[in-house]
Amino acid sequence: MSTDKRQFNIAICGLGGMGNWHREIIQQIEDLHLVGTYDIREERQQFAREHGVTPYPSYDAMLADPKLDIVTLAVPNDLHKPLAIKAMRAGKNVVCEKPVTLSCADLSAMIDVSEATGMLFTVHQNRRWDEDYLTARKIIEEDTLGPVFRIESRVLGCRGIPGDWRQEPEHGGGMILDWGVHLFDQILQMIKEPLKTVYATVDHVTNELVDDGFYADLTFESGLIAHVEVGTSHFIGKPRWTLYGRDGSASVDWGGPEGTQGEIVCVTDRSKNDAVPIRTAAGLTKTMAPRTDDTIKKFPIPHVHSDIHDFYKNVMDAIDGLQEINVKLPEVMRVMRLMEAVKASAETKQIVPFE
Questions:
Q1: ω before 99 within 30° of 0 (cis)?
Q2: Which pTM was predicted?
Q3: Helix (H) or strand (E) holding 337
Q4: Within 10 Å of residue 216's Cβ, how many Cβ atoms?
Q5: What are the residues whose beta carbons fall under 8 Å from the beta carbon of 333, sequence distance 6 or more?
Q6: Please, which residues bridge with residue 231 across strands?
Q7: Are strands 148-156 and 70-73 parallel, antiparallel or unpaired?
Q8: pLDDT, tens digit, for every residue of 292-309?
Q9: Gap between the Cα atoms of 226 and 189, Å rounded
Q10: What DSSP element (H or E) covers 256?
C-alpha cells in the first residue's frame, strides 16, 4: 500500500500583506500546491502574475475550480463570514484569517454551515507559534517560578493604527479585534482553568472611531490575574511578557535573530530576608530594597523553537482524518466571547462575569 501523502490544492482570496505572507508560507510546504489567488485590486492581480501565480478572474471562478481543496481568506474582517459560508457551500475547506468574524452570532452561523456541509473550517491563530509565547508557557508549565499569581502580556507600538480598513468599525477595526484576538487566545491556551471575571478600559488616543489600545484584567478561578495590554501610542517599550510567581519572576521579550530574549530571577534562600535600607530622594525604604546576591539566582530563559509551517500541515492532516485540528472552533468561540466581554466591560465600566 502506498504511503505517499495526498497533495492538496489551495487558493488565497485577498493578496494584501497577510495574504502574501500566506503565499510565501504555502509555497514552502510539501504536498500543498498554490493553484491561484484572487484580489479585487488589479495591482495585486498583477503582483500574483509577477510571482508565478495565475490569479482567478473572480471569487466565484475560484470556488468553481473543481481541483481546489482549500480556500484561505485574507480579506477585511467583515468579509470573513459571507466569503467563508460561500466557500463551504461550494464544497471547499476554509482557513480564515483572524478575527474569524465580528461577533459570536456571526461565528455561530459559520459553524452551522461547516457542520451542515462537512467542510473543515478553522482560523489562522498563527501566534500560537510565537516563540516568546511558547517560552513563557514553558516557564509556567515547568513551575520554574513556583505558583504564578500574575501574568502580563503586552504589545506596544507608537505609530497608531495603520491607515486602512483597520481604522473603520464597520470593517472590524480596532485593537481588540486586531491584536486582542491573538493575546486572549494565547492566555486562554496557557491557563487551563475557568476565567471568572473581566475588567477592561479602552484608549482613543489618535482614533475616535475604534479603540487604538486597551487594558484588560482577566481573573481566573485560582485568583491568578492575567493583565493584557495593547497600545499604539507608547514611545517607550516594555517586555512582551512579565511573569510573577511566589519564588521568582521572569521577563520574556520578542524573539530576534538570536532567539527569544529575557531572564529569570528566583529566590534561593528565604531565611535571609533582611535588607539594608536604600536611600531615595525623599526618604529610606527597606521594603523595596533589592535582595542580596547570595539569596537569588539568575537563569537564562529556555529557547523554545516552533515552525509556523506546522499550521498548514495540521490542516491537511485534519482534512484527511489523521489528526485533530489544532485551532478548534470551541476555542475560537471562547476568544470571541472574551472580546465581547472586554468591550462590554469598557462600555459599562463594570467588572463582567465570564465563566
A1: yes
A2: 0.94
A3: helix 329-348
A4: 26
A5: 104, 107, 108, 111
A6: 156, 213
A7: unpaired
A8: 888 999 999 998 999 999
A9: 12
A10: strand 248-256
